[in-house]
Specification:
- By secondary structure, the chain is mostly helical.
- The chain folds into two domains: 76 residues, Arc Repressor Mutant, subunit A; 114 residues, Tetracycline Repressor, domain 2.
- Helix content is 68%, strand content 0%.
- The protein has twelve helices and no strands.
- The two termini are 41 Å apart.
- This is AcrR family transcriptional regulator.
Length: 231
């Protein structure tokens, strides 16, 4: 078992021999998350975490032997548990899944960096997969198809979080930055001017996340129906 697997999945708190510590593994992870929340993931170092805890650097190494382990623990705690399993249609369950994921990740955009590439999943991350796959259990979709549905939804959510990072009103901010240029060149970009104006008038700004989720679910609904007919 690798060190990352052990630290993520062990039921026993990990601590190397030595004097009784003044803090716990939860304190270490909490300090690292606080740093990432305030300054970004790059600011998280073993020394910085130790400073936050008022401890020596080697005190942190009694719990996590590398930043990879610490990052894995940070991600698992930041993701938290998925929504409570629903009993309604699979569409409503996946909608809740996607919106909850967006809420968690947009609160901590640094999680984007930790959910790409090869990594060891923790119990909470796998619980999110389990929720999504279970929602589709009663459909005719096989395992690969169900995983692809989750991947499409998750990628849409991730794209939204990335777009929103650093902006409280992404579409409004985009409109304001484009407004001067659009006013000066409205004749060249009439469709763009009209679309932005309509978005302002309708009040349907910052709706891309939900719009995308609904369109994805509509497409999957049709795919599920076709798979049922062909079964």
């Amino acid at each position: 078992m690798s060190d990352v697997v052990a630290v993520l999945w062990s039921d026993e708190p990990r601590r190397k021999p030595g004097p009784r510590p003044r803090f716990t593994i939860d304190d270490v992870v909490g300090a690292a998350i606080a740093i990432a929340d305030a300054e970004g993931l790059d600011a998280v170092t073993m020394q910085r975490v130790a400073d936050e805890l008022g401890a020596a650097k080697m005190g942190v190494y009694r719990y996590v032997s590398a930043k990879e382990e610490l990052a894995a623990l940070m991600l698992d705690r930041a993701l938290g548990d998925p929504p409570s399993a629903g009993t309604g249609p699979w569409q409503s369950q996946l909608r809740a899944w996607a919106l909850a994921m967006h809420e968690r990740m947009s609160a901590r955009p640094w999680t984007l960096e930790l959910t790409v590439g090869r990594r060891t999943p923790g119990p909470r991350e796998l619980a999110w997969f389990e929720y999504g796959l279970a929602a589709l259990r009663g459909t005719p979709l096989d395992g690969p198809d169900r995983m692809d549905v989750l991947a499409v939804l998750a990628n849409h959510v991730r794209g939204g979080v990335q777009q929103e990072a650093g902006a409280t009103e992404p579409e409004q901010a985009l409109l304001e930055s484009f407004q001067q240029v659009l006013a000066a060149h409205a004749d060249r970009f009439p469709e763009t001017v009209a679309a932005f104006a309509a978005a302002q008038e309708s009040g349907r700004q910052d709706n891309a996340l939900r719009f995308g989720i609904e369109r994805i679910l509509e497409g999957v609904t049709e795919y599920v129906a076709r798979a049922g007919r062909e079964a």
